[in-house]
Amino acid sequence: MFLSQRMSRIKPSPTLAVTARAAELKALGQDIISLGAGEPDFDTPEHIKTAAVKALSEGKTKYTAVEGTTALRKAIIEKFKKEDGLDYDLNQVIVCAGVKQVIFNALLASLNPGDEVIIPAPYWVSYPDMVEIAEGVPVIVRCAPEADLKLTPELLIESITPKSKWLVLNSPNNPSGMAYSHKELEALAKVISDVPHLNVISDDIYERLIFDKYKFVTLAQVAPELKDRILIVNGVSKTYAMTGWRIGYGAGAAELIEVMATLQSQSTSNACSISQEAALAALTGPQDFIKDWIKIYTERRDAAFDILNKTPGLHCFQPHGAFYLYPSCVELMGKKAPSGALISNDTDVATYLLESVGVAVVPGAAFGLSPYFRISYATDTKLLLEACRRISQAISLLR
Ligand SMILES: Cc1ncc(COP(=O)(O)O)c(C=O)c1O
Fold it and tell me: Do the domain assignments include residue 57?
């Protein structure tokens, strides 16, 4: 076979697979509501689209610097300074085609075969596969419900070996929605400080999507002495409803950023020039719509939480941010569907929900922690509530 061995170690994104399956059933005429996709249902704001149209008409259609335009990198630096109190120079920032490519570049540029990457579960689906592509070893650490599905210093200590190169922290978390507090990060930073060969990818993509009185804080703010060992990754996909524009950025040690840019120069070159102009408008333009969106997300979260958490057999965590709920379905294990089918894992739960009431959710197996399932409430409110009612009704029929 002409395919590489590398490809035998990785699988297609399970969240995209769920969305595709739901779309397939919908195309066959079935009444399907998909809560699978991790993208805002809002449209990209008008002023951002206008900036892209202007860039097009001004002929900004050529290659840019591989690491991104100076204007966009300056805007990113300004954002870090203003919002997070963090100082970066131009050579410490890179713009890529989404956070996905930032992380991909970082892992490929830094991992030697056998280097370990500590990934707390539940995790964003792509981390382990990206580590595998880069010939690293994903070390999955299962976080406990008692710790709100977050990594504790004890678990971190247990997972560190001489081969540990990266820890991936994601707060607010996809899929759980849980975020780390200042105190929790401080405790993790203490452990990291003692292990000089351990670096941290801090995936802050949901940074602005924070609810209630919760305050977002990133590890580099809590532990400035670790800043050179932290790669912060962030982007415009979620905050500004710009998933299709493909702009993400990374900020970290100049030495790492430089090799990431070299790698990118030999693969995709710069991120799309028009999208970079749009991202510049996103970061420097009006921000007040974000609070209106957060209000809508919060209302949806509360309504969905209410229905699901009241469903016997489901237990939800009240998320601090992002737009996901990750209910535990452990009590459903061993039950039977009206068809007689046995529910023995969270994939069975997801299959049952899709087939019996036409609701697509992503099983916890995809996020490395079972038995749970993820729903995304970045979905039209009416549809979301209808879907939650259907889930509740279907689960009540399990015996
Ligand atoms: C935690 C996390 N990181 C990164 C990404 C990728 O984002 P981007 O669209 O910028 O590639 C996602 C998207 O779902 C995510 O949930």
Answer: no
pLDDT for 43-58, tens place per residue? Answer: 999 999 999 999 999 9
Examine the pLDDT at 16 and tell me if it is beyond 90. Answer: no
Of 244, 266, 284, which closes a domain?
284
142 and 261 part of one domain = yes
Residue 99 CA: which ligand 1 atom is closest? 10
Question: For a substitution probing ligand 1, which of 237, 245, 326, 376 has the most ligand atoms within 8 Å of its CB?
Answer: 237
**173-213 per-position pLDDT tens digit:** 999 999 999 999 999 999 999 999 999 999 999 999 999 88
* Strand stretches in 100-235, DSSP E: 116-121, 137-142, 164-170, 199-203, 230-235
What is the b/e burial string over 225-248, where b = at least 16 CB atoms within 10 angstroms of the residue's CB? Answer: ebbebbbbbbbbbbbbbbbebbbb
170 lines ligand 1 (CB under 6 A): yes
**CATH code of the domain covering residue 250:** 3.40.640.10
pLDDT in tens, 321-361: 999 999 999 999 999 999 999 999 999 999 999 999 999 99
Check residue 6 and give its pLDDT. Answer: 86
Q: Which atom of ligand 1 is nearest to the CA of 248?
A: 10
| Separation CA 182–CA 284 (nearest Å) | 27
Global pTM reads 0.97
- Which atom belonging to ligand 1 lies closest to the Cα atom of 101? 11
Structural domain boundaries, residue 356: 5-43+289-396
Residues 150 and 253 in one domain: yes
| Same domain flag for 314 and 181 | no
308, 390 contact by CB (below 8 A) = no
**Same domain assignment for residues 207 and 77:** yes
76 and 25 fall within a common domain:
no
- How far apart CA 101 and CA 227 sit, in angstroms, is 21
Number of domains in the chain: 2
Question: Is 136 within 8 Å of 116 (Cβ atoms)?
Answer: yes
* 143: amino acid identity, one letter: C
Query: 363: Cβ below 6 Å to ligand 1?
Result: no
Residue % of the chain over a pLDDT of 90 = 92
Residues 19 and 130 in one domain: no
